[in-house]
C-alpha cells in the first residue's frame, strides 16, 4: 500500500482499475437482464396474438414496464462506459484502436440505434401502430440487444485471444477482419454470455412472480409467468453447464495461465485434483486448507485421469492474481449448480404437481438475483484471469493507463460509487413497489388506469385485505 | 503512420463525426433543454401536469437522441484515436460530471412514473438537475476545446461563458420544441421561455464570435481577410433576421389555428447549423486546435475503410427509421400509455 501511495501514477492505475471494474460491473447488471427479457416479451406478445388470452397481455404489460426501467439504466450506464476508454485507458485505443474502434463502431451502427429507435415504438406505440408493426418493433429491439452483446463480446474475446493483426511501431494493424471477429474464444464466450443472460432473466422473472404469489396474488398471470420462467431456466442450465465446460477447454488451450489460476494449481501436475475449497497464498505460492477430489480436474480438463495440467510455476510474473480468479470461479459454479437444483425442483412442483409450496416460493424469491452473482463472478474470472495483460500477450494493463492525477480519479470514483449505490437501491425497491402495484391492481380489477388511486395500490397491506371488486 | 494530406478518408470521417455532433446538439439539445426548463413549483397541481406533458413530449425520442453522442464519440475514437485520448483525458472531470448528469436524467425518466408516487416530484427535480449538469458541462467542454485547452484565466472564463451560452441555446431549442409540440397554457409559457433564451443566446453567440475573432490570430486570418470577409455580411444579416423574426413570432403565440408553430424550432435548428459550420470552418483541419490535424490523428486506412463500408449501408437505414419513429409520434403531445 505504501509504495502505491508514494507513486501517484501507480495510484492512478489502481484507481482506474477499480473505477473501470465498478462501471462495467454496474453496467452489465442491466443488459444481462434485458438481452433475454426482450425475447421473453416477444414470446408473451406472440402468445397473446395467437391465443387472445388476457393473461399473456397482463404478463406482457407487467414485464414491459420493468424492461423499460432496466433498459434506461442500461443505456445511461453504457454511455458512461463508452467514455471510459478515452478518459482512463488512452493507451488501449492508441495501441489497439484500429481493432477496437471499428468493432465498437459496428455496435453503435447495427445495435444501439436499432434498440433506441424501436424501443419507443415498442413501449409507447401500441395505440399508434398496428399490432403487427408493434410485434416487429419488439423483435427488432430484441435483435438489437443481442447484436450489441455479440459485437462487444467479439471485442472482449479478441482481447483474450487476439489474432488477425500485425504490430507496426507498437500499433496493431488488422490483417484479417474475419480472424479478428471470429477469434478462437468468441463462439464460446458469446454463447456462454447469452445463456447467462437467459438464466439471469429467467430467475429474475421467476423470483418476482414468486414474490407476487407469496404475497397473495391469485391471478393467473403471476403463476403462468412463474411456470414459464422455471421452464426456461430448467432447460437452459444444463446447456450452460455443458457450454461452460467447453469454454474451459478452450481457455486451457489458449490461456493456460488463467486455467491454472482457476484451479489453484501452483505446480504442473499429472492427475490434478479438483479443489472444492482452498485459500490460495500468493506469497508462499501454495494453498492452505485444501478440500480436494483427487484427479478430477485432470479428468475434466484433459479427459484423462492422469492428464498433465500446466501449473502457475510455468508463468511466474505472467499470471493473474490467483485468489480472486479462484474464488470467483467457484462462486459461478456454485450458483450454477444451485440454479440446476432450484429450476428442476421448481418445474417438478410448479408445473408437474401444480403446487406452490411456501418453502419453494421463498427459495425462488431468494434466487431472484442469482443470475447477477454468477454473471459478475464469471466476468471476474475472465477479466482478472487475463491480467497482467489487457490484450493477451500484446498490451499490459499497466501500459494503457491514463496519467490523469489520482485526485481526479478519486473524485469521479467516489461520485460514481455514490450514484450507483443510489440507483441500485432505487431500482430494487421500485421493482417491489411495482410488484405490489400489480398485486393490488389485479385484485381490484382496476384494469385500465394504473396511475389511479396510487395510495391504495402501493400499500403492501392492501393485498390481503382487498377482495375482488 | 501519418496519412498523406490528400487522403479523402480522414476528411470523410471528420465530416461524419461533425455531422453526428451537430445532430446530437440539435436532437439531444431540445430534450436536454426541456429538462432544464421543467418548472420547479410544487404547490400547484397545474405544474405537475405541465411537467408531465413536457416529459411526455420528449419521452419517445430521448434514447435515440442520446445515441448520437455515443456515435460521435465513437467516430472520434474510431477515426482519430490519439485525439480522442488527448481530449477526453484533458476534459476528465467535466466529462465525468456530464456522464453523471446524463445518468441521473436518464433514470429519472423511468423512475418518475414507476417509483412510489409520493416520490414523483423528487424524480422530476433529479431530472432537471441532471439535465442542467449535463448542459453546463457540455458547454464548458466546448469552451475548453475551442480555446485549445488553454490553461489561462482567459481560457477558463471563456469556458464559463460557453457553458452558459450552450445551456441557453439548449433551452431555446427546447422551448421551441415545446411551442411546436404543446398547446394552451404550456405553449404560451414555452414561448415566454423561448423569448428569454433567444436573447441570451444571441448575446452569447455575439460574445463568442467577438472573443474568438479578436483574441485568436489564426481564426481572425481565416475570416477577416478578403474574400472571406464578404461572407460575413450576409451571415450577419441572416442571423439578425432569424433572431428578429423568431422574437416577433414568439410574442404572438398562441396563433390562430397554431399557424407556423414549427417556425421557432426551424429557426433554432438553422442557428445551430450555422454556428456549427462557422466553428468547423474556423478549426479545419485541426482536430486538437493548433496541435494535431486530422491527418496526423487518423487511424489505419484499412480500419477506416472497414467501418466506412458499414456506415454507408447502415446510416441511411438509421435515418429512415428515425423518420419513421418521428412520424409515429407526430402531432401535439398526449399521455404516453403502455
Ligand atoms: C453482454 C452484453 C454487454 C456488454 C458486455 C456490454 N454491453 Fe453495453 N449494452 C448492452 C450489452 C452489453 C445492451 C444489451 O445492448 C444495452 C444494455 C441495455 C441497453 O439499453 O442496451 C447496452 C447499452 C450500452 C450503451 C447505450 C446504448 C444506447 O444508447 O442505446 C453503450 C454506449 C454501451 N452499452 C457501451 C458498452 C461498452 C463500452 C461496454 C464494454 C466495455 C459494454 N457496453 C459492455
Ligand atoms: C460485462 C462484463 C464485464 C465485467 C464484469 C468486466 C469486469 C472487469 C474487471 C473486474 C476488470 C479488472 C481486472 C483487474 O484489473 O484486475 C476488467 C478489466 C478490463 N476489462 Fe472488463 N469486464 C467486462 C467486459 C469487458 C468488455 C466487454 C471489455 C471491452 C470490450 C472490457 C475491457 C476491459 C478493460 C479495458 C480492462 C482493463 C481495465 C482494468 O484492468 O480495470 N471488459 N474488467
Ligand atoms: C456451472 C457450470 C459453469 C461452468 C463450467 C462455467 C465455465 C466458465 C468458464 C470456464 C469461464 C471463463 C472463460 C474464460 O474467460 O476463459 C466462464 C465465464 C463466464 N461465466 Fe460461466 N460457467 C458455468 C456457469 C455459469 C452460470 C450459471 C452463469 C450465469 C448465469 C455463468 C456466467 C459466466 C459469464 C458471464 C462469464 C464471463 C463471460 C464469458 O466468458 O462468457 N456461468 N464460465
Polypeptide structure, described:
- The complex is a heterodimer of chains A (469) and B (338).
- Chain A is built from 17 helices and 8 strands.
- A two-stranded antiparallel ribbon of chain A has the order 1-2.
- In chain A, helix 11 runs antiparallel to helix 13.
- Chain A has a domain of 310 residues.
- In chain A, a hairpin with a 4-residue loop joins strand 4 and strand 5.
- With 338 residues, chain B is mostly helical.
- Chain B has one domain.
- Chain B has 13 helices and 2 strands.
- In chain B, strands 1-2 form a two-stranded antiparallel sheet.
- In chain B, helix 1 packs antiparallel against helix 6 and helix 10 runs antiparallel to helix 11.
- The N and C termini of chain B lie far apart (53 Å).
- The mean pLDDT of chain B is 82.
- Chains A and B meet through helix 3, helix 4, strand 2, helix 15 and helix 16 of A and helix 3, helix 4, helix 5 and helix 13 of B.
- The complex binds CIS-heme D hydroxychlorin gamma-spirolactone and protoporphyrin IX containing FE (2 copies).
- CIS-heme D hydroxychlorin gamma-spirolactone sits at the interface of chains A and B.
Features:
heterodimer; A: 469 residues; mainly alpha; two-stranded antiparallel sheet; 17 helices; 8 strands; B: 338 residues; two-stranded antiparallel ribbon; 13 helices; globular; binds CIS-heme D hydroxychlorin gamma-spirolactone; binds protoporphyrin IX containing FE
Amino acid at each position: 500500500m505504501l509504495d502505491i501511495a508514494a507513486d501517484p501514477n501507480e495510484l492512478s492505475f489502481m484507481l482506474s482499475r477499480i473505477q473501470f471494474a465498478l462501471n462495467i460491473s454496474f453496467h452489465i447488471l442491466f443488459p444481462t437482464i434485458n438481452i433475454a427479457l426482450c425475447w421473453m416479451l416477444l414470446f408473451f406478445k406472440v402468445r397473446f396474438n395467437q391465443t387472445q388470452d388476457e393473461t399473456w397481455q397482463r404478463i406482457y404489460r407487467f414485464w414491459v414496464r420493468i424492461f423499460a426501467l432496466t433498459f434506461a439504466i442500461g443505456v445511461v450506464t453504457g454511455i458512461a462506459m463508452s467514455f471510459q476508454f478515452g478518459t482512463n485507458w488512452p493507451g488501449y485505443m492508441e495501441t489497439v484502436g484500429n481493432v477496437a474502434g471499428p468493432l465498437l463502431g459496428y455496435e453503435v451502427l447495427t445495435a444501439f440505434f436499432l434498440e433506441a429507435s424501436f424501443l419507443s415504438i415498442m413501449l409507447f406505440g401500441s395505440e399508434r401502430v398496428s399490432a403487427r408493426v408493434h410485434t416487429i418493433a419488439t423483435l427488432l429491439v430484441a435483435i438489437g440487444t443481442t447484436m450489441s452483446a455479440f459485437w462487444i463480446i467479439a471485442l472482449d474475446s479478441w482481447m483474450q485471444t487476439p489474432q488477425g493483426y500485425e504490430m507496426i511501431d507498437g500499433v496493431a494493424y488488422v490483417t484479417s477482419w474475419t480472424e479478428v471477429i471470429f477469434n478462437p474464444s468468441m463462439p464460446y464466450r458469446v454463447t456462454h454470455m447469452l445463456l447467462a443472460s437467459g438464466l439471469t432473466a429467467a430467475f429474475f422473472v421467476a423470483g418476482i412472480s414468486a414474490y407476487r404469489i407469496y404475497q397473495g396474488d391469485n391471478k393467473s398471470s403471476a403463476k403462468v409467468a412463474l411456470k414459464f420462467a422455471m421452464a426456461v431456466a430448467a432447460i437452459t442450465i444444463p446447456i450452460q453447464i455443458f457450454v461452460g465446460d467447453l469454454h474451459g477447454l478452450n481457455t486451457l488451450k489458449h490461456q493456460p495461465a488463467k486455467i491454472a489460476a482457476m484451479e489453484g494449481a501452483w505446480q504442473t501436475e499429472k492427475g490434478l485434483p479438483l479443489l472444492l475449497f482452498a485459500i490460495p497464498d500468493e506469497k508462499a505460492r501454495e494453498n492452505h486448507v485444501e478440500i480436494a477430489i483427487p484427479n478430477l480436474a485432470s479428468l475434466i480438463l484433459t479427459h484423462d485421469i492422469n492428464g498433465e495440467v500446466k501449473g502457475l510455476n510455468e508463468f511466474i510474473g505472467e499470471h493473474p492474481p490467483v485468489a480472486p480468479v479462484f474464488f470467483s470461479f467457484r462462486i459461478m459454479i456454485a450458483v450454477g449448480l444451485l440454479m440446476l437444483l432450484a429450476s428442476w425442483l421448481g418445474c417438478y412442483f410448479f408445473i408437474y404437481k401444480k403446487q406452490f409450496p411456501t418453502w419453494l416460493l421463498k427459495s425462488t424469491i431468494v434466487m431472484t438475483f442469482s443470475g447477477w452473482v454468477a454473471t459478475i463472478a464469471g466476468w471476474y474470472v475472465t477479466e482478472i484471469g487475463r491480467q497482467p495483460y489487457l490484450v493477451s500477450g500484446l498490451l499490459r494493463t499497466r501500459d494503457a493507463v491514463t496519467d490523469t492525477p489520482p485526485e481526479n480519479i478519486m473524485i469521479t470514483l467516489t461520485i460514481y460509487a455514490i450514484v450507483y449505490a443510489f440507483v441500485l437501491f432505487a431500482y430494487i425497491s421500485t421493482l417491489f413497489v411495482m410488484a405490489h402495484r400489480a398485486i393490488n391492481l389485479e385484485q381490484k380489477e382496476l384494469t385500465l388506469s394504473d396511475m389511479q388511486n396510487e395510495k391504495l395500490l402501493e400499500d403492501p397491506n392492501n393485498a390481503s385485505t382487498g377482495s375482488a371488486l | 503512420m501519418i496519412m498523406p494530406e490528400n487522403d479523402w478518408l480522414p476528411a470523410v470521417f471528420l465530416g461524419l463525426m461533425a455531422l453526428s455532433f451537430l445532430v446530437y446538439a440539435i436532437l439531444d439539445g431540445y430534450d436536454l433543454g426541456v429538462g432544464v426548463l421543467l418548472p420547479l413549483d410544487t404547490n400547484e397541481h397545474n405544474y405537475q401536469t405541465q411537467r408531465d406533458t413536457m416529459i411526455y413530449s420528449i419521452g419517445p425520442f430521448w434514447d435515440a437522441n442520446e445515441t448520437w453522442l455515443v456515435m460521435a464519440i465513437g467516430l472520434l475514437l474510431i477515426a482519430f484515436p490519439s485525439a480522442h485520448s488527448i481530449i477526453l483525458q484533458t476534459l476528465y472531470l467535466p466529462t465525468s460530471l456530464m456522464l453523471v448528469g446524463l445518468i441521473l436524467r436518464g433514470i429519472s425518466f423511468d423512475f418518475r412514473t414507476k417509483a412510489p408516487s409520493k416520490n414523483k416530484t423528487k424524480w422530476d427535480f433529479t431530472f432537471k438537475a441532471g439535465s442542467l449538469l449535463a448542459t453546463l458541462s457540455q458547454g464548458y467542454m466546448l469552451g475548453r476545446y475551442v480555446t485549445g485547452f488553454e490553461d489561462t484565466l482567459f481560457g477558463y472564463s471563456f469556458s464559463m461563458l460557453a457553458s452558459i451560452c450552450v445551456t441557453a441555446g439548449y433551452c431555446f431549442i427546447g422551448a421551441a420544441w415545446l411551442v411546436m409540440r404543446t398547446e394552451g397554457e404550456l405553449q404560451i409559457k414555452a414561448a415566454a421561455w423561448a423569448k428569454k433564451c433567444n436573447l441570451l443566446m444571441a448575446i452569447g453567440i455575439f460574445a463568442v464570435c467577438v472573443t474568438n475573432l479578436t483574441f485568436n490570430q489564426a481564426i481572425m486570418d481565416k475570416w477577416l481577410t478578403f474574400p472571406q470577409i464578404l461572407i460575413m455580411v450576409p451571415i450577419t444579416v441572416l442571423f439578425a433576421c432569424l433572431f428578429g423574426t423568431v422574437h416577433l413570432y414568439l410574442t404572438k403565440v398562441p396563433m390562430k389555428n397554431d399557424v407556423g408553430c414549427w417556425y421557432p424550432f426551424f429557426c433554432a435548428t438553422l442557428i445551430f447549423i450555422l454556428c456549427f459550420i462557422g466553428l468547423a470552418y474556423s478549426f479545419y483541419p485541426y482536430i486538437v486546435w493548433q496541435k494535431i490535424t486530422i491527418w496526423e490523428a487518423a487511424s489505419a486506412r484499412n480500419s477506416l475503410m472497414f467501418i466506412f463500408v458499414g456506415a454507408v449501408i447502415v446510416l441511411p437505414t438509421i435515418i429512415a427509421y428515425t423518420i419513421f419513429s418521428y412520424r409515429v409520434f407526430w402531432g401535439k403531445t398526449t399521455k404516453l400509455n403502455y
